[in-house]
Amino acid sequence: PTVFDIQRIRADFPLLSRTVHGKPLVYFDNANTSQKPLPVIEAMNEHYREHNANVSRAVHQLGEEATAAYEGARDKLARFINAPSRNELVLTSGTTQATNLVAYSYALPRLQPGDAILTTVMEHHANIVPWQLVAQRSGATVKAAPIDQRGELILEQYVAMLTPEVKLACVSQVSNVLGTVNPVREIARECRKRGIALLVDGSQAVPHRPVDVQALGCDFYALTGHKMLGPTGTGALWARREHLDAMPPFFGGGEMIREVRFDGTSFAEAPHKFEAGTPNIAGFVGLSAAIDYYQSVGFEAIHAWEQQLLAYATERLREIPGLRIIGEAAEKEPVISFLIDGTQATDLATLLDLQGVAVRSGHHCAHPLMQFFGVPSTLRASLAFYNTREEVDAFIVALLKVRKLLM
Ligand code: PMP
Description:
Elements: H1 6-11, E1 19-20, E2 23-24, E3 26-27, H2 38-51, H3 61-80, E4 89-92, H4 95-110, E5 116-120, H5 129-138, E6 141-145, H6 155-160, E7 166-172, H7 184-194, E8 197-201, H8 213-216, E9 220-224, E10 235-239, H9 241-246, E11 257-259, E12 266-267, H10 281-297, H11 299-318, E13 323-326, E14 335-340, H12 345-354, E15 357-358, E16 360-362, H13 367-373, E17 378-382, H14 389-406
Parallel strand pairs: 3-15, 5-6, 5-7, 7-8, 8-9
Antiparallel strand pairs: 1-2, 4-10, 9-10, 11-12, 13-14, 14-17, 16-17
Helix pairs in contact: 2-10, 3-10, 4-5, 11-14, 12-14
4'-deoxy-4'-aminopyridoxal-5'-phosphate is lined by residues 94-96, 124, 126-127, 172, 176, 201, 203-204, 224, 226, 365.
EC number: 2.8.1.7
Enzyme class: transferase
Family: Belongs to the class-V pyridoxal-phosphate-dependent aminotransferase family. Csd subfamily.
């Protein structure tokens, strides 16, 4: 079994040892964005110091180095999620660009008045709003599959809503608010039976578990790099080759063409057809290093440690009078949303910050989920494998203190 050397891991994340308002930082806002280990920071630094050039356009040495690094990131990401081919991986600025690409290039050309896109009540706005925008343009509708009070998707209802009008089904693998792990394989199986393409929002899954898009059986998989130790402005869309070949380009410009003529431009093959303009080259260099970092630690060890932290934090939170946890699914990643009677989430978060504790308060870009639970916002503590039990203890001490101030 892998020995989890938490102190060695923490030493790789320089930011974790800083103070905030004179207190040691407790960073529990990992679902928002993760911190970055030194190998990621150094890889980007080295790229700009030694290899910087644009990709694909130059025959000179630096151009070749930059292209090799950027295309190397595509290879690494493809292997990371077990994509059957590197050419099925479109590099994007994040999940939001990935879902919008599917909305405009896949969904919009297929949607007729009366058609529908199926999503769920627990989705992030990035997996709701793009569908609403293309539905409005085409006369289609967006339907949302329900969840229960524990914050679990009601699978039978999702399946029952996979009617013939549905041209695209969507679901997150892990909820950014509740931590719920959704039954994506089962959903994918039902979608395939009905010939409906399935998009999985993997933003909150890739930081915590090994992902295998072929085993999941979906058609599209969207991810964002900055939640998985990588830089902001990186992400990807994996899509089955048949879909990418059938999809028209979304952005036009350089790098995505075969030949441009005023009497008819022809486009490059996927994935380049979807990557107009100069990409975030240094960002993908950093993301490559992030993937190496995950692999050096290993998801088995990460999962075991995070599940221990989740159980411990949940148990400690339950000791606090008047505290209500929102989302108690049987299978969760280390994300805990909660409220404390008689207090506002934003007040708690503001006072926690003065104690050095970074958590998020608000609607977490999930208005429909807040409406379902009948709350305007929640406080969310989201953990990563570089967090510790001692930090959970410090968080609980701070929470008890600020609760007292507000009561
Ligand atoms: N989906 C989920 C589940 C998320 O948690 C997030 C980020 N909060 C997104 C989509 C959007 O990711 P990005 O802002 O990096 O595009």
